[in-house]
Every structure is written in C-alpha cells, then in structure tokens.
Design brief:
By secondary structure, the chain is mainly beta. Helix content is 13%, strand content 62%. 22% of the residues are buried.
Length: 233
C-alpha cells in the first residue's frame, strides 16, 4: 500500500506538469483576421439627368469619400468563402460651371450612408467586391452673376448606390491588410426642389412670407467610378 502511494505521488505531479495550462492553450490559438477597415478614395459621377448637367454646367460630379467598415462573418458559397461586412460612408461631390452663358454655378452634395459589403477571393491577392448602400444627401446649388448678389438653396433627400469592383492587396498579414481597389456603380438620388433664395434674405420668422423663383427639380443620379486605398486591421 505504501509502495502504491509512493508511485502515485510521483506520477500525479508529472502528469499535471505535462498538461498545458489554460493560458498556454490560449496563446497557441491562431490570431484573428482583420475586423475593421478604413479607406479613403475619390469618385466621379456621370450625371444621367439633364437637370443636373444644366445646373452644374457639365456632365460630371467628383470628389472624395471616406469609409469605415466592420467585418461580420464568412459564408461558404459556390466553392468560395464570402466575407460579409457592413460600413458607413461620407461622400462629397461638387462641380463648377456656367449656365445660360453668364450665370456661374456651383453644385455640391454631401451624403452620409450605411451599407453592406461582400468580398469574394478570386486569384492571387485579388478579391471581387460588391457593395450596396443607402442614406441621406444634402444637395446645394449656388448661382452668381458678376457682382450681383448670389442666390442659393439646398435640400435633403434619399441617396442609394450599388457597385461592383476589384480589390488588390499590396500587403496581407495576419492582422493588417493594405489594398488598392476600384469600383463601377450607379447612384440614385431623390430629385431636390430648389428655389433662388438671395444670400441677404431675412429670417423667415421675422419677415413677411415671400415667394422666390423656383430653380426646378435637380436630379443628380448617374453612373459612378470609384478608386480607393484601404487599410484593414
């Protein structure tokens, strides 16, 4: 009996020492993939409605965009693993032009959106990227003529876009990924009803109601091309 206890007293500490602790097991787990992304890029939009082209004096709008993304999950489909995520985005577009030969115009638009992104690996370090987003846009138009007082107005409306493109990784590590990409898509905006309001107009709460000339309904929908630089971490 004494001999058996002596053997157990030797074996139990040896077995306990051979088993990895919970802390050791955790350190052996593979590091997680990048979960967040930040990208900065530029875009150009070819206006598909004549009202936008007339107001801007040209057929295009352009400007920067900034996007913050978050990876959610992966889905196995068609022998590929699709990465599904969400994002929020700020978009700015503007154009200067001339209307009716002597009226200088500036058309600008700020948009705040949220959307869904799906990435699918293709070959080497290249991914296919599809996005859909929706939000609100503030569209503004200012018209000037020489030294005369400018007139302007703005309106809020819905904004939606869908695009598809390619993403090429410049660097791809376990926790950081750096990529360049481009997309082709289409933007739909609610037409904005604008009026010719003078810059020196009085406060509407302190003046007699006044009717100003209507500029019309401005539609800024169109095909877009976007290029961006993205860091995932």
């Amino acid at each position: 009996m004494i001999r058996a206890l002596a053997v157990l007293s030797v074996l139990v500490p040896a077995v306990a020492a051979a088993q990895p602790s919970a802390q050791q097991v955790d350190t052996d787990v593979a590091p997680a993939r990048a979960s967040y992304s930040l990208d900065y890029g530029a875009h150009v939009r070819w206006l598909g409605d004549t009202s936008g082209a007339i107001a801007s004096g040209e057929n295009t709008l352009g400007g920067p965009r900034l996007t913050l993304g978050r990876s959610l999950t992966t889905v196995a489909a068609a022998r590929r693993t699709l990465a599904v995520g969400v994002f929020t985005r700020w978009v700015y577009a503007a154009a200067n032009g001339t209307m009716f030969q002597d009226l200088d115009t500036r058309l600008s638009q700020h948009a705040l959106t949220a959307g869904v992104r799906i990435d699918a690996p293709l070959v080497w370090h290249t991914r296919l990227v599809a996005e859909a987003e929706a939000g609100m846009a503030r569209t503004a138009l200012q018209i000037t003529q020489g030294d005369l007082m400018p007139v302007d107005d703005h309106a809020w409306g819905t904004y939606a876009s869908a695009s598809v493109g390619l993403d090429f990784a410049l660097y791809e590590g376990p926790r950081v990924r750096v990529a360049l990409g481009s997309e082709l898509g289409y933007v739909v905006t609610a037409p904005a009803s604008l009026r010719a309001l003078p810059d020196d107009r009085p406060d509407t709460d302190l003046s007699v109601p006044t009717t100003f000339a209507s500029i019309g309904r401005l539609d800024t929908r169109g095909v877009t091309y976007q290029g961006w630089f993205r860091v995932s971490f």
